[in-house]
Design goal:
Radius of gyration: 21 Å
CATH topology of the largest domain: Rossmann fold
Distance between the termini: 35 Å
Helix content: 25-40%
Number of helices: 9
Largest sheet: 8 strands, mixed
Shape: globular
Strand order of the largest sheet: 11-10-12-13-9-14-15-16
Number of domains: 2
Structural class: alpha/beta
CATH class of the largest domain: Alpha Beta
Number of strands: 16
Strand content: 25-35%
């Protein structure tokens, strides 16, 4: 699997950058990002650590050793990513990224083209951020028993600061709920994947394993997608990542009232932190959610700090 991940990443780069990455002997299990900026150093991000690469592929001793990315190399990378047809990805470019096989996401920045106040495209692409998609099957084993009540799945909100593994955990909960496990029979799960981060879909097919009973709306706004799934796919559970505006909260209420279970994530550091967010205040006050899972990086990404029930009683926490 790691070898396949390496190959899917390597083939989007020109030969010179492939050679540098191969010489760096990177651990692709931990590698999170590869950043290219015109005239700037080639940087890899693994955990909390940045690695500046030299032309030989090793770590740099200082700025004098930095391998600087040329515009030609960056544009050649864009050509490989887009299969030499960047215009075929206009809709994705409006969102600022392109999803490639393997579920990896290539963030793109440059000059934005506006028309009638709306983003119409991008040109002079000068910055790329290749974000690697990681699956950690089984990472939800520890938390899953706490998400059930009388055999049924609870309305669950995962609370996490950035880069603490919330999407990875969300993905494995979806997979287990869809496939079924010793605790629960498999459920129909509907996923609204607004930024292609959960399923990492390529040409509409999720590259990440989301289970055998999962249906995905890719690149669809959460507020609209939740209702589309309810009307069209009859899910038992609706899953979304990073709820964030009032339209999301209205759609969430509709999910509750339709009898579906909701599995969602939100940025935050605690239940109290999330309680102060205006869009969630009423939902929390009225106990819409039955479980709150709080993550942090105390013991690495994905560490489950606490789990609370809908009344705010802690039902799990490291001592």
């Amino acid at each position: 699997m790691v070898k396949e991940r390496e190959e899917s990443i390597f083939k989007i780069f020109p030969e010179q950058i492939r050679t540098i990455l191969a010489g760096a002997a990177l651990n692709f299990e931990d590698l999170q990002e590869i950043r290219l900026r015109v005239g700037k150093p080639l940087i890899c991000v693994s955990g909390e650590r940045e690695l500046f690469l030299s032309a030989q592929g090793g770590a740099c001793r200082g700025p004098e050793d930095y391998f600087l990315v040329s515009r030609e190399l960056l544009l050649e990378t864009v050509s490989y990513v887009s299969h030499y047809s960047i215009y075929a990805f206009d809709e994705e470019l409006k969102q600022g990224y392109i999803t490639i096989p393997g579920g990896h996401r290539v963030g793109v920045a440059g000059k934005i083209v506006m028309e009638e106040g709306k983003i119409r495209g991008m040109k002079y692409i000068s910055f790329l951020n290749i974000r690697l998609s990681h699956e950690k099957k089984g990472c939800a084993d520890r938390v899953f028993p706490y998400l059930l009540e009388e055999g049924g799945f609870c309305h669950t909100l995962i609370i996490s600061p950035p880069k603490c593994g919330k999407t990875t955990l969300l993905r494995d909960i979806i997979r287990q709920a869809s496939d079924g496990n010793p605790l629960m029979a498999g459920q129909n799960v509907g996923v609204v994947d607004e930024r292609s981060e959960i399923g990492g879909s390529y040409q509409g097919i999720p590259q990440n394993d989301l289970g055998i009973r999962t249906d995905v709306l890719d690149c669809c706004p959460k507020s609209e997608g939740m209702m589309m799934l309810i009307r069209s796919m009859a899910p038992d559970i609706v899953a979304v990542d990073e709820i964030g505006d009032y339209r999301d909260s209205q759609a969430i209420e509709a999910v509750f009232h339709c009898g579906c279970r909701l599995l969602a994530t939100v940025h935050g550091s605690s239940v109290e932190d999330v309680r102060r967010k205006p869009l969630l205040q009423r939902l929390i006050r009225q106990h819409f959610f039955q479980r709150y899972v709080v993550l942090d990086r105390e013991r690495g990404a994905g560490h489950i700090r606490e789990i609370f029930d809908g009344r705010g009683t802690r039902i799990y926490g490291d001592t």
